[in-house]
Design brief:
- This protein is an alpha+beta fold.
- The chain has 3 domains: 148 residues, no CATH class; 180 residues, no CATH class; 112 residues, no CATH class.
- The chain contains 21 helices and 15 strands.
- The protein is elongated, with a radius of gyration of 31 Å.
Length: 557
């Protein structure tokens, strides 16, 4: 399913011929017609804090050179083009010279002659004056002759490579391709994928590098599957193109989500990118309106609810790339599930979170100490996204991670409270206390206890100018209210005595205690879902204090 979808993507969108690929290039070696190195030109563009390589259509790089010496045509690193390798520099340079001499032997254009002359002259002696040697050793280079890159746009070099590739791609056998169903030459070693966080030399989606991974009757030296050269080239080219396009991939924690629509779905792809990483609250009104209309089954401008949409979540690994999930569905169904997720998250704001639609990266960051989504539990990003897209229950790991950060003494902010609310709705089917703002009519015991704790905390803040009971007692009050609430209520009497007008708090405290007026008012322990209700009650009540109407009530009632 994954490979066939990528092959179809290639056939719908790519204009890269077989044997070629889009490659990111950092520098160009500017040589004259006699092969003399004139300079090294940077091809990287600076975008904010990032440097982006120039993407050119170039011959495919070798698919399996993790340890041996095997040169690439027209584009390679500084070890092969400049001899910048302390151990094998001369050997790599000679390998590149032999390959270019062989392919360009019968090509008599100025560019071909210049490249042959460059290699015949040996390793350049002025490299250190032109570029930092350590940087150049692993950077990618192309040739520039007479101000033009030698790439797919050079007809003579293009023809020479195509002829060479065709000869070396011939196979003595043919197989029925498992992807296309057509007979063709099998691919022995599949191309590499440039996955963020993956191996520098590239990672593979399909491979067998140990006997335990092989099919019956085969060894690790045999091909991993009966996939034709065409299909292998197509899916690798399509996936690499998607990964190079920020409009078709996003980092989700440590995982990378790749997404695309069937042919003609550029509008749906753009909308999905906005849904996955929504703008700030003051910019999302149009997005929210479009999502709501599509989710309800209505029409929305140029978006097609029935268009097929594909999502592939990948994670780097020491061996093959790990596939977290692959999901294919109608675009309208995906929008509906994402809209339902945002509805479950929606909660009264704390005036600190700039988002109304809370993005996934923000949720993941709240599960970590350093507030970095990249530090989240390795599997959590992919799990969370898959559950959102399919409308399934949230992973328990997420709920537990948020509760852990709260128990560690972190503030109950909008994002944490929103996740607790969403998990209670979806996983525990709670409806009474999972309102957007305070539910004053609710008599739910854990929810009321959370509200009561918020009142006692606010009373101390008014009396002393600060509060210490949150960091000292919140975790215990949330998990084991029977152990600490008598102490907290006694403390509140001292705090109220310091205020000239404590009527508002005393009356609110009395109303909440009336809800708890029985012999089990303060349970010895609360279950994990009841702890979530406690946290919601606390957050709702605290935000109510900060609302304008309640601020007026605090001083006037």
């Amino acid at each position: 399913m994954i490979v066939s979808a990528l092959v179809k993507r290639y056939e719908d969108t790519q204009d890269v011929p077989i044997g070629w690929q889009k490659r990111g290039v950092s520098y160009a070696l500017d040589i004259d017609k006699s092969g003399r190195l004139l300079g090294v030109l940077s091809l990287e563009a600076v975008e904010g804090k990032k440097r982006r390589k120039r993407v050119l259509t170039l011959p495919m790089k070798p698919t399996n050179r993790t340890s041996g010496v095997e040169a690439a045509f027209l584009c390679d690193d500084g070890g092969y083009f400049l001899g910048l390798d302390s151990r094998r520099g001369q050997k790599k340079f000679e390998a590149a010279r032999a390959l270019h001499t062989k392919i360009l032997a019968n090509v008599n254009t100025a560019a071909a002659k210049a490249i042959r002359a460059y290699f015949d002259a040996g390793i350049p002696s002025n490299t250190e004056k032109l570029i930092d040697v350590e940087t150049a050793a692993k950077a990618t280079f192309v040739f520039q002759v007479n101000g033009k890159f030698v790439d797919a746009g050079n007809d003579a070099a293009c023809c020479a490579w195509n002829e060479y590739y065709a000869i070396h791609s011939e196979a003595s056998e043919t197989v029925i391709c498992l992807v296309t169903g057509k007979r063709g030459a099998p691919e022995t070693t599949h191309g590499t994928i440039d996955l963020p966080g993956g191996q520098k030399s590239g990672s593979k989606l399909i491979s067998a590098n140990a006997e335990s991974f092989t099919s019956y009757g085969r060894t690790a030296k045999d091909r991993a599957a009966d996939v034709s050269k065409y299909a292998a080239f197509a899916y690798v080219t399509a996936l690499n193109a998607l990964l190079k396009d920020n409009n078709h991939c996003q980092l989700i924690g440590r995982d990378t989500l790749v997404y695309w629509a069937e042919k003609g779905g550029e509008a749906e792809e753009s909308l999905f990118a906005d849904m996955l990483a929504p703008p700030r609250a003051d910019e999302d009104s149009q997005l929210a309106d479009i999502m709501a209309r599509i989710a309800r089954g209505g029409s929305a401008a140029e978006y097609d609810r029935k268009r097929r949409f594909y999502l592939l979540c990948l994670s780097p690994n020491a061996g093959r790339i790990s596939v977290r999930f692959f999901y294919e569905g109608a675009f309208g169904d995906i929008v509906r599930n994402i809209q339902a997720h945002y509805d479950r998250l929606y909660i009264v704001g704390d005036n600190r979170t700039p988002f109304r639609l809370l993005p996934v990266w923000l949720i993941l960051s709240e599960t970590t100490i350093k507030k970095s989504a990249g530090d989240a539990t390795p599997l959590l990003g992919g799990q969370l996204l898959y559950r959102i897209l399919t409308g399934s229950d949230y992973p328990f790991t997420l709920y537990h991670a948020i509760m852990t950060r709260i128990r560690a003494g972190e503030a109950v902010n909008q994002t944490k409270a929103a996740v607790v609310k969403a998990a209670l709705i979806k996983n525990y089917h709670e409806s009474e206390v999972t309102t957007v703002a305070l539910n004053e009519q609710s008599a739910n015991r854990p929810y009321t206890l959370g509200r009561l704790f918020s009142v006692l905390e606010r009373l101390q803040e008014k009396a002393n100018g600060s509060s210490t009971i949150h960091e000292r007692y919140f975790t215990s009050a949330c998990a084991n209210p029977g152990r600490v609430f008598s102490t907290l209520l006694n403390l509140s009497m001292h705090h109220a005595a310091k205020l000239d007008n404590a009527v508002f708090y005393e009356r609110l405290k009395g109303e909440l205690l009336d809800h708890l007026d029985d012999e089990k008012a303060f349970p010895e322990a609360l279950s994990l879902d009841d702890q979530g209700r406690f946290i919601l009650g606390y957050y709702h009540q605290r935000q109510e204090f900060f609302a304008k109407k309640e601020n007026k009530g605090e001083n006037g009632r």
